[in-house]
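Researcher: Last one for today. Full complex below.
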Amino acid sequence: KQEVTQIPAALSVPEGENLVLNCSFTDSAIYNLQWFRQDPGKGLTSLLLIQSSQREQTSGRLNASLDKSSGRSTLYIAASQPGDSATYLCAEQGVRSQGNLIFGKGTKLSVKP
Amino acid sequence: ETGVTQSPTHLIKTRGQQVTLRCSSQSGHNTVSWYQQALGQGPQFIFQYYREEENGRGNFPPRFSGLQFPNYSSELNVNALELDDSALYLCASNLAGAYGYTFGSGTRLTVV
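Model: Here's the assembly. Have a good evening.
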């Protein structure tokens, strides 16, 4: 069974800290890995997509990396702000999932002012 | 460029009833997928439609069915609602062969 695991499940940090969210996956033949943000009761906002041929992607204060050999991805958030508070989900899209997304349960981030 | 839109945003139904949720895909996208997200969980894949036909299905019973229309919009139908069907239902669209999905804001279904 394919799984995507996210650690930690919840994280609380003071404003300004740099932080790392972790995602591990079991599919060895992924097409890409995508990071999403979800505000309470809302839909998903795509943050970054890393194709299997890439090692990292950056957007503003966000940087995501992909290591297919170890089945891991990390999302790095620099200089966190209270507005970053949300749940962050990673999802892999691969051969074994027939191209559909397999999600982790997410990391709930709280950034305190 | 319009994003993915879903309707309604919230819905309350009684156990045993039937429900239809609607989704308009992002302009230029020809594939629509539906996901169910229970509280505190990640979204689970229900099924995908491409060229008006089901193109993949997750571990959901046949009472979950769908349609895709020529304009690539889609419906999710659930018959014989159960309490466990209470969840956020998310629609996502993409262009077949391309990477990445765009999600709508979801429909919150409560079954009482």
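The two ends of chain A are 41 Å apart (CA to CA). Chain A has a mean pLDDT of 93.
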